[in-house]
Amino acid sequence: MTVVQELGGVQVMVCAAEGEPVAGEQDAVDLLGNAYYQGASWVAVPVSRLGEEFFRLRSGVAGGVVQKFAQYRMGLAVVGDVSPQVERSDALRDFVRESNRGLQLWFVADLAELAERFAG
């Protein structure tokens, strides 16, 4: 189940922790369609919905998903603790750091942090 919430003045489709994994570009397109239908401009996906392949940058899953969001000009927030994945990969650590500097993809601990980023 998903719900649209206003966080820091932005309409965000917040995905439930339970549900189908976001395992590739088609899953991203499905999320995008749902978010557009509900009037959201960002999608917040819990870490639990992203498989290990997403966090293995060589797999191309993260790149494909993020590219779809960029093509449709919608933001993506990965919500939750990614420290276990980051500890295993210098490339992922760099990816997370650079993403958080941008405006398209953010890795945040929780929805409160996401709201702060929008408000600030």
UniProtKB/TrEMBL annotation:
Keywords: Hydrolase. One of its GO terms (molecular function) is hydrolase activity. It holds the Pfam family DUF4180. Residues 9-117 form the DUF4180 domain. This is Alpha/beta hydrolase.
